[in-house]
Amino acid sequence: MTGSWLTQEAFDRLTLELAELQGPRRAEIVKKIADAREEGDLKENGGYHAAREEQGKLEGRIRQLKHMLEHAHVGVNPDAESGVVSRGSVVTIDMAGDEMKFLLGSRESAPEGLDVYSDQSPLGAAVLGAAVGSTVEYSSPDGKRTFKVAILECEPYTG
Q: Structural domain of residue 13, as residue ranges?
């Protein structure tokens, strides 16, 4: 399944951010660019170049948010309730005697303080589809080390 699982709270927060960026924030940057243009020679106009760079970052974030919101699944991933790790699961693992808890999903949907791993990261890919009680292995990105991870708990992220 494509798209991210977002809680209603996260979806609403991202929708508000998008509205702010597309409205007042975009207008503010357009004004900065216009003001800098009035200063004359654009080749050596630091304010103009800074505003254009800021505009590029803003437009990139707008595209990212639009894509995410258009493809988002809002609510709780039903697969996350099955005891099998899926996108939208809060997973507790044991790695070499250290317990670790994280959300498998998108940073955009996570609250402050909860680590997030993509299902395409080495750890995320290893635990995706694993059942509570199982042990999985994955290699470090450089391929030099292998890690064993025991899945202790898996619950849906409800935000």
A: 5-74
Distance CA 25, CA 30 (A): 9
Q: pTM for the full model?
A: 0.61
Q: Report the 10 Å Cβ neighbour count for 68.
A: 19
Give the end of a domain, one of 43, 74, 105: 74
Q: Which of 62, 75, 57, 58 is nearest to 11 (CA)?
A: 75
Among residues 74, 91, 112, the one where a domain terminates is 74
Say how far apart CA 87 and CA 108 lie, in whole Å: 13
Averaged in consecutive runs of 10 residues, what is the pLDDT profile of the chain (159 residues)? Answer: 69 90 94 85 78 93 90 70 80 93 76 80 92 92 90 84
